[in-house]
Write a structure and sequence with these properties.
Length: about 300
């Protein structure tokens, strides 16, 4: 593969290597801000934004490392072959330097928040690196390590503003991440087959197995979220039973995503599906607005007339 690199093209390639479109995953750090009803407090908002920025830097460092390690396999993939490192647009030496700079900046920003947040950020980074170097080659464990990254995000979001999270929210995050991970593997298997040479452990999966895994984890997502919404706060649930009004939106979002996976053949890149599908975007925005309205109204006594 012959490419002509200039300082400008390398700079553009280094920006593309960040995979900024995947920073949507780090929005999970704002969940604690919303569910703790601290989204009107300027200090907490600043801390949450700082944590988000730190995780964007750290997650991008993980993407660059993964692309470095997978560059030979990515060249056999119809889409991944266009990535900056696999295509030759970003030289490996520059990618290594960018990787180190991102880790340094992300770690410094994490430490500026608190030692606890910094530890959680390190745990996230360690999970990401261990996945890239080792666990991505092992069936089931590969998806579990991807899911662990989302759990660290959720916990770190709470640490950024010094609040605790509901155990049901923790479980929802874990099950939803597993669902997205198995969906990603299913999409890859559907698009490429198990002998495409782009990911060795795809040979260990099949569609029937992944459908079973999806069914198990999506059922647990619904159950955990419904319990959070219905149970009183002293049992680890939400602050008001009016949170059950958000359950239909959660169900529709999951059903819509399954429809896109099973009928439209999507799912190999869940983040791209989220950014592309208008009904899911509307559902996510509607869920966020309704949740904030309910939580804010309950915290300020505006919903007392609706309570029994």
């Amino acid at each position: 593969m012959t490419t002509t690199n200039t300082p400008i093209t390398i700079f553009i390639a280094s920006l593309r290597a960040l995979r900024a479109h995947q920073w949507t995953k780090n929005v999970l750090l704002f969940a604690a801000l919303v569910f703790s009803v601290n989204f009107t407090e300027p200090t907490h908002i600043i801390n949450a934004l700082t944590g988000f920025a730190a995780f964007c830097l750290l997650s991008s460092s993980g993407y660059i490392l993964n692309d470095l390690l997978d560059r030979e396999a990515d060249r056999k993939h119809p889409k991944k072959s266009k990535r900056p490192i696999a295509s030759g647009a970003l030289p490996p030496a520059i990618a290594v330097l960018e990787f180190l700079l991102l880790i340094g900046a992300g770690s410094a920003l994490s430490w500026s928040l608190s030692p606890i947040f910094s530890v959680l950020a390190f745990c996230y980074l360690a999970t990401t690196l261990s996945y890239s170097f080792y666990f991505k080659h092992f069936v089931i464990l590969d998806v579990m390590f991807i899911a662990a990254g989302f759990v660290w995000r959720a916990v770190a979001g709470a640490a950024a503003i010094s609040v605790t999270i509901s155990p049901w929210f923790f479980l929802c995050t874990a099950f939803l991440a597993l669902f997205l991970g198995f969906t990603k593997r299913r999409g890859e298997l559907t698009d490429l087959g198990d002998a495409a040479g782009t990911r060795k452990n795809l040979q260990e999966y099949n569609l029937a197995l992944l459908d079973h895994y999806q069914g198990i984890v999506v059922g647990n997502v619904v159950l955990a979220y419904a319990l959070y919404a219905a149970l009183p706060a002293n049992m680890g649930g939400g602050p008001t039973p009016l949170m059950t009004l958000t359950v239909p939106l959660v169900l529709y979002g999951l059903f819509r995503f399954l429809y896109l996976v099973e009928v439209k053949g999507e799912g190999a890149a869940p983040d791209e599906t989220l950014l592309r599908d208008r009904p899911i975007q509307i559902t996510v925005i509607s869920y966020g607005l309704l949740t904030m309205a309910i939580l804010y109204g309950n915290a300020n006594g505006l919903l007392s007339n609706f309570m029994g």
